[in-house]
Predict the structure.
Amino acid sequence: MATIAKTVVATGASSGLGFELVKQLLAQAQPYKFILGARDTKRTQAAFDELKYDGSKHSLTIFPLELSNLKTVKTFSQQTLEKLGQDKIDYLLLNAAIAKNADEPGPNGSRWSEAYIVNHLSQHYLIHLLREKLEESRSRIVVVSSGAVRGVEDPSLLENDVKSASKTERSVYSATKFIQLLGAHWWRRQLKGKCDVVAVSPGLIPGTGLPRGTKMQLPVNHPDAKSVPEGAQSILRAFTRDDFPEDPEQIFLTSWGEWWPKDVYKLTLDKNLQDKWCPSKDEIEKEEGINA
C-alpha cells in the first residue's frame, strides 16, 4: 500500500535554512507535497530542480509571495487553498525572516517597519487566511523563532521600535522575533485542541542570508555556531516531537532539542500583550488597505 504524502506549506524556503529543510525532506522515503511561497519563483524552482529529487514521489509547487506586501499574502493563501482542494495541510512552516533596521518608511504606506511586517504581521495574517483549513486538517504550525527574544527587556518600547522610520538604536530583529513569539502563544490559545503550535530555534547559524544588508554579525567561529544542515535538523525536530510538556505555555523547542523553561521567555506569556500584537484578519485588512 502506497504511503500517503504529507503536505507542507512554507514561507522562507527559497534559501538558507528553509531550502535546506525542504532538501532534507525530499531525500526521505516519506512522500511530501510542498507548497512554497517565494519572491523569485523562477530562481527558487531552478534551485530545487538542481536537486534532482524523485518527482514521482514528491511534488513541489512554488507560488509568488512577497511578505512585505500583504496583498500577495492574500493571493498566496488563495492559490494554496485552490491547489490543496480537499487535501489537508499537515505542516505550516513559518520560517521567513529579515534582519533590518527601522530607519525607512514602511512598505506600501504602512505605519510599520518592513521587518515587523515580514517577521510577524504577514505570517500572522497568513494563519488567519488558512485558519479554517488548518483547523480542519489538525495541522502542526511550526514557528521558527530565535534566542534573540531575550533581547527585549521592556515590552512597552516595542511599538516605538517596530514602527516605520523609528530609527531606534535597540534591536529591531529582537523586537520582531519577540512579537512573533507573542503570536505563537496567541495562536496556541486560539487553536487549542485543534492544532499544535511549536516555536523552535535553529540555533546560531552564520551561514544563512539573514544578516544580508545589515551590520548584524554572526561569527563563524562562535562556540555555539551550527551549520545550515544542523539548523534545518533542529527545525525538523519541531515537525515530529510529540513529547509536549504538561504546561501548555511551554511551546519553545531549543536547537539542542529541549523544551525551554518558561522563565526564559516569561515576558511573552502576558496574554494582554499577546492580544495587543495579534490583530484580527479584519483589523489587518483595514489598517493595511487590503480589499476584502
